[in-house]
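FORM 7B: Structural annotation worksheet

SECTION A. Query
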Amino acid sequence: MIRQTHPNRLTRLAPGGLALLLLTVPIVGYLMRDDARLFDMGMGRLHAPRWGLMLAAPGAIQVHVAAALSALAIGVVLLAGVKGSRLHRTLGWAWVAAMGTTAISSFFIHQINPNGPGGLSLIHLLSGWTVVGLPMAVHAARRHRVAAHRRAMTGMFVGGLVVAGLLTFLPGRLMWAIFFGPA
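SECTION B. Predicted structure
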């Protein structure tokens, strides 16, 4: 009988980590070549967060950010923890609820492209992907299709939370203003 070995956690996280690295390297490279011109143009400096901007934001944005931060925290615990346990399943349902709330609330946010069709922008494609992908990933888990479940959930975590979250720190966006905008 051949004994099947299970890949360790780092091996399972490698594809998501590679994708994140491939997205991060060009951004960091640009910022290094930028010679801090972005900051010199008066677009901002790192300062204490101005949480008043978040409190003044529309309710949809506040719900969206709260749900996204919850999903991020739960997702880190899920990715680092033991899979298949009762805790994993319980936290998994909480993550699905937080991701669903994040995705659905995004459809009520139109600041990027207010004059576009329905006020939607390209980033809303990630939300649509999440709304469709979440039930499919849950279905895969319930059918014990672990590899499909892992790929879908890791993809939503990296694409829907990490990448989309990093995009919120671009100049002109709310998170940029909170952390870097003119004080």
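SECTION C. Observations
The helical segments are 9-33, 37-43, 51-56, 59-80, 86-106, 124-142, 146-167, 174-179. The chain has a mean pLDDT of 83.

SECTION D. Sign-off
Analyst initials: ____
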